[in-house]
Amino acid sequence: MEVKIGVQHAAREIVLESDVDRDTLEKQIADAVASGGILSLSDSKGRRTLVAADKIAYVEIGGGVAGQVGFRS
């Protein structure tokens, strides 16, 4: 699942690919924002991303796009 996080006063958004389902992601984000703490997400490669919840401008949760290169039969 692709997750894009917009951060206030930052020119670029944070993009990561997560193996967590949509409902769990939504709950983690909502809990972090409600508590004003830190949003901590792990991507599919095991890297951890930390964002201050009060600096989050938006979060976009999508299905991700698997691109195809070359010919298919």
Could you describe the 3D structure shown?
The protein contains one helix and five strands. The protein is 19% helix and 37% strand. It is α+β, with helices and mostly antiparallel strands. A three-stranded antiparallel beta sheet has the order 2-1-5, covered by helices on one side. A two-stranded antiparallel sheet has the order 3-4. The radius of gyration is 14 Å and the shape is globular. It has a single domain, classed as SH3 type barrels. The model has no long low-confidence stretch (mean pLDDT 88).
Brief account:
With about 70 residues, this protein is α+β, with helices and mostly antiparallel strands.
Structure keywords:
73 residues, alpha+beta, two-stranded antiparallel ribbon, 5 strands, 19% helix
Q: Look at the structure and give the mean pLDDT.
A: 88
Whole-number total of structural domains? 1
Radius of gyration: 14 Å
What structural class do the secondary elements suggest? alpha+beta
Shape: globular
CATH class: Mainly Beta
**Main pleated sheet:** 3 strands, antiparallel
Give the total of beta strands: 5
Percentage of residues in helical conformation: 10-25%
Distance from N terminus to C terminus (CA atoms, Å) equals: 27 Å
Strand order of the largest sheet: 2-1-5
Q: Given the structure, what is the number of helices?
A: 1
Order of helices and strands: EEHEEE
- CATH fold annotation: SH3 type barrels
